[in-house]
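Hi F.,

I've been meaning to write this up properly since the lab meeting, where we talked about keeping a consistent format for the predictions we share between groups. The idea is simple: the sequence comes first, exactly as it goes in, then the structure tokens exactly as they come out, then a line or two of notes. No screenshots and no reformatting. I'm using this chain as the first example so we have something concrete to point to.
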Amino acid sequence: MGIVITATGASHDTDTASSIEHAGRAVRAVLTDAAVAPESIGVLINTGIYRDSNTVEPAIGALIQKAAGIGLEYDEHDPRSFSFDLMNGACGVLNAVQVASALLTTGSTGRVLVVSGDTHPSMTGPDAPADFPYATAGAALLLEHTDGADGFGPLHVELADGPAAVEGFVDTDTMGVTGRSAMTVRRSDDFEARVLDVALSAATAALDATECDPATTVLISSRPTPGFRAALSAKVGIRAADDDGTADHVTGDTHTAALALAYHHAVGAGRLDGVERVLFVAAGAGPSAAATVYRVPAGRAGR
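Output, unedited:
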């Protein structure tokens, strides 16, 4: 038994800088791609961190569910949909896959949507402060249960010792009435090197636990910088899914949306043709990392 990706969606047009709108568009694209009705989605898990106007309540997952038109009817016999936030930085998407696997394996629901995306709380897009490191985008994965060995393998998590390599917070002492539109993100000078180390540990553990042919396995990483991808790819001996020179669809670090966004575009560009396994590696704040090997269903990469 396995958990597979049956459809993907993404949103990164510059006509909006709302993470909720981008996530809602990504979900609607998934529903269209999979040709499924909104009411067939049992659970929606949102893993985004940086949200519109620093909204805390209600859960952003509920707002995305509304934007996507899922579960808006409450008659007695209507199907029920449930949504919630699961926040663990860049690793959140793979944590959400863990949760979705439990729900789908036990039959609690037939379909789970994992949604991700971030924005600067001011929602000013290109005019956001230059020192904010994350790009605005949204992405979604539709997960379903399948018989057989296809799908996600065990998740391997690593957490480095020492002080946090990156911190994101609202500085209430200095922001005053601008707190709804302000955010401070601090990265240590050795952030990239420390994140690479912990990502390599998680990736190696995932590969050691699974038989993979490097010739038919590709790497998809949540760290979008070419230097990070190239270094991790070289260390694990597996080519990155976008090492063919194709230009990135989004400029900058898409943070929580990076894995789903990269997978979505890799499928659309045919980069997974002939690929049997995908090594997903997420790494970020902590520094922490998570990795899993995904066995791609034959002829069905999820889009």
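Notes:
The mean pLDDT is 89.
The longest helix spans residues 191-208.

If this format works for you, I'll send the rest the same way.

G.
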